Amino acid sequence: MKKIRTESGNWINASYKSGMYEQWQKKAKINRNVINENDDDGDGDGENQQRQKRSMKMSSRRKPKQQSGVNKRGPKRELKTKDEIFKQRNRLERIQTHQKKKQRQRIAGHKKGGKGKR
Region (Disordered): which ranges (predicted)? Predict the structure, then answer.
């Protein structure tokens, strides 16, 4: 029995080869040589023109890429003012005290021995 190799590399019996693609190609009247000849003419058939118009529309819809390192708001300042430093330190201190308070509450809740929230 004759065997053929599939695209995936497996060997199957030749009786499984159906020729469906070739049949479809004939019905659809698609010939690769005819398509290649049209591309070489350079007269620009309607399909290529439509494709170019569509690609132009899509490219105009795209957002322009930002330049690297430049933000919409401008470059970030490297030096902070006294007020900015003071506010940042206060904010961190408030966050830390809040976290410590919550931690103490959790520890106190565990010492009671109750089920509590889990």
Answer: 32-118
3-state secondary structure of 14: helix
Digit-coded pLDDT (tens) for 64-73: 665 555 557 7
- Report whether pLDDT(116) > 60: no
Q: Is residue 98 part of a domain?
A: yes
Q: Is 106 left (phi over 0), alpha (psi -120 to 50) or beta?
A: alpha
Domain count, the chain: 2
| 33, part of any domain | yes
Closest CA to 100 of 111, 110, 108: 108
Q: Tokens 């509590």 identify what position?
A: 116
Q: pLDDT, tens digit, for every residue of 20-78?
A: 777 888 888 766 655 555 555 555 566 777 777 777 776 666 656 655 555 577 777 88
Kindly tell me the sign of the dihedral angle through the C-alpha atoms of 94, 100, 104, 107: positive
The length of the chain in residues reads: 118
Q: Considering the domain boundaries, does residue 105 fall inside one?
A: yes
